[in-house]
Amino acid sequence: MNDQANSVDERYATTPATLTSWSRQDTTWMLGLFGTAIGAGTLFLPINAGLGGFWPLLILALLAFPMTFFAHRGLTRFVLSGREGSDITDVVEEHFGIKAGALITLLYFFAIFPILLIYSVALTNTVSSFMEHQLHILPPPRAILAFVLILGLLAVVRCGEQVIVKAMSLMVYPFIVALLFLAVYLIPHWTGGILSTASEVPAPSALLSTLWLAIPVMVFSFNHSPIISAFAVDQKRQYGAHADERSSQILSRAHLLMVVMVLFFVFSCVLTLSPAQLAEAKAQNLSILSYLANHFDNPTIAFAAPLIAFVAIAKSFLGHYIGASEGLKGLVVKTGRRPAPKTLDRLTAAFMLVVCWIVATLNPSILGMIEALGGPVIASILFLMPMYAIRKVPAMAKYRGQASNVFVTAVGLVAITAVVYSLIP
User: Fold this and answer.
1) Please, are residues 229 and 88 in contact by the beta-carbon 8 Å criterion?
2) Are 232 and 69 in contact (CB under 8 A)?
3) Overall average pLDDT of the 31-37 stretch
4) Which domains occur in the chain, in start order?
5) pLDDT of residue 236
């Protein structure tokens, strides 16, 4: 017991008695979290969230911050509850045993990796379309274009986790400016749009049904669970005993930035387009940017839309790569093989490059279904696993009895049941 206490004392020996002031690294992580969450899904959010009508959208807007902040804070605390340097796969094994650890690691990988494949396809499609329609040049063969794009992103990955986070935080700036520009640009074109449904107060049963099916859209549009493990490990390394407090501050600011920016963009879009136009965009399987470019026949939007989409997809790819590689490395280690860290990094990068390149080249339509199937797993890991750990794991006992735990559990169950229901023919 004394040895354990001494090791704890040594672990935090360099940790200040009080938190230091907000640093540039904290800002970098805040923007990195924002960058992972706010990606290509944001460009479809106005369509999916706006179709339910005014009142469901208003309720979802009010729930957006607590839904996302409390869930990601819970997952961060779960990773922080493990030993120093332990990522999410190690912490699961530490708390729940080897078999449960292997199962969760497997599910974690297969929840995130398909999304990485989807981003690979989307990135290739976006650049190919941009070259053909905006630059008016013939794009190279799809296999070559996909290989160059994915290799370019993996070159950033090879520079290390800190470089990835910094690259994502830098890419966030033009994305925020672009979203803000588009939202402001649409203000003169506001026609009331979704406000036409404000006088139609839905029946309680219809309202609950709409919210039930819409909550997963909101949850997964703000999801940045793939980078949470790396975030928590870095916070514990930097702040030791104060990691929970500082990580909560970073998360709250990141989520506030997400919610304010994205909801302003969403409301600007749905005040511009009628519910019928939103339904048309959904039927055409277009992002809101593509539909707006066609709707206004505006060359500026037509040229800017694919550039914004490229930035959104690229930064989300980098964020999801961290989580997917972490899961793959965890699976390799749990087989009993322990290659050198550099060898494992290279093998992981090679595997990711080959698989992402093949899928991006083939451009299969099955990816949408794979993403939907990963939804319940993401919700289970993000919402339910940390709440279960709070009840069962002694290291997390101090978080018991908080009202936010009940809220997170309820939202997680709603998200899982709604996604499963949406998959039933």
Assistant:
1) yes
2) no
3) 85
4) 35-423 (1.20.1740.10)
5) 93
